[in-house]
Amino acid sequence: MKRIAVLTSGGDSPGMNAGIRAVVRTALFHKLEVYGVRRGYQGLIDDDLAPIASKTVSRIINRGGTILRTARCMDFYEPEGRAKAAETLKKHAIDGLVVIGGDGSYHGAHFLEKEHGIPCVGMPGTIDNDIGGTDYTIGYNTALNTAMTAIDQLHDTAESHERIFFVEVMGRLSGYIAMMSTIAGGADHVLTPESKSDVDGLIKELQRSRDEGNYNQIVVISEGDDAGNAYEISEYVKKNSDLKGIRVTVLGHIQRGGIPSAFDRILASRLGVHAVEALLEGKSNVMIGVKADQVVTPPLSETWDNPTSFDSSYFHIVDALLRR
Ligand code: F6P
């Protein structure tokens, strides 16, 4: 193996730059040449890639986003798109590819390897923390801290104005950010896609707490909740109760940006070193993850076959910590 390439794909997440830096520096450490592909798989289809030097990745460990840019590339779902990408890789004599992204991106890597024999290794990059085969994904910890800080701040105004806030956090299919920011931020209730949400039960609890003198309350809602989005749920609550001072805050893409936490920088650095070394050891079609603080290399298929979810006992933690 003489030359490898790295790309970021899917939604960006804080720490992706730390991952790129780790891949580049480790490749150079092992005397490999390394190329950066712009805009994820789209860059492979468009032949948009260039060598990356060590100094290009200086001082990016602390930056959010991805210097390589990213995209959700629909063409890569088609065999024709992947054939074009493989052509680009062959043209530049690239012997292996590191893909930093989520499980959608791994489907692409899986087929690129199967159809064109190009060794591919994944690094989990998404704020959602829902990729199978790893306890943590790059960016989740930072996004969680962003959501927690927002809840802290909303507590201040909720208390001053005696308001009830419905805070919507990201996680289309995963309630990790919602659940953990509820606990870390000391919020009152959480609705996540992992369990069926009972909004009538929630109304009863909000009323009980208000009747006991708690006029400020915070409900965290994961964007993928089955009961609807924060606006829809708050409208239902307004219509079906006499609760006053209801406000909605949608955190949105704020959670995807920002300075990566120490945890995410260290995770991305560690996974990046192992990703390059896995390619050198002849591994392919695997993701580099971390389980119980040990680096693991599950097959890419495990990342979508067994998506990670938090233990259901966390719902009990939220319930036990509620003001009563
Ligand atoms: O990165 C994952 C995620 O943040 C999901 O939680 C969210 O639904 C989605 O990305 C939104 O991404 P975009 O706006 O880029 O389509």
How would you describe this structure to a colleague?
This protein starts with a strand and ends with a helix. The radius of gyration is 22 Å and the shape is elongated. Strand 1, helix 1 and strand 2 form a beta-alpha-beta unit. It has 11 helices and 12 strands. It folds into 2 domains: 183 residues, Rossmann fold; 114 residues, Phosphofructokinase domain (Rossmann fold), CATH 3.40.50.460. It has 324 residues and is an alpha/beta fold. The mean pLDDT is 97. The strands form 3 sheets. Strands 3-2-1-4-5-10 form a 6-stranded mixed beta sheet, with helices on both faces. It has a 4-stranded parallel beta sheet with strand order 7-8-6-9, sandwiched between helices. The chain has a two-stranded antiparallel ribbon with strand order 11-12. Helix 1 runs parallel beside helix 9, helix 3 packs across helix 4 and helix 5 crosses helix 6. The chain binds 6-O-phosphono-beta-D-fructofuranose.
Order of helices and strands: EHEHEHEHEHEHEHEHEHEEEHH
Helix content: 40-55%
Strand order of the largest sheet: 3-2-1-4-5-10
Class of secondary structure makeup: alpha/beta
Major pleated sheet: 6 strands, mixed
Unreliable runs: none
Number of helices: 11
How far is the N terminus from the C terminus? Answer: 62 Å
Chain oligomer state? single chain
Q: Any idea what the CATH architecture of the largest domain is?
A: 3-Layer(aba) Sandwich
Quick structural overview:
By secondary structure, the chain is α/β, with parallel strands linked by helices.
Attribute tags:
single chain, 324 residues, alpha/beta, Rossmann fold, 2 domains, six-stranded mixed β-sheet, four-stranded parallel β-sheet, 12 strands, binds 6-O-phosphono-beta-D-fructofuranose
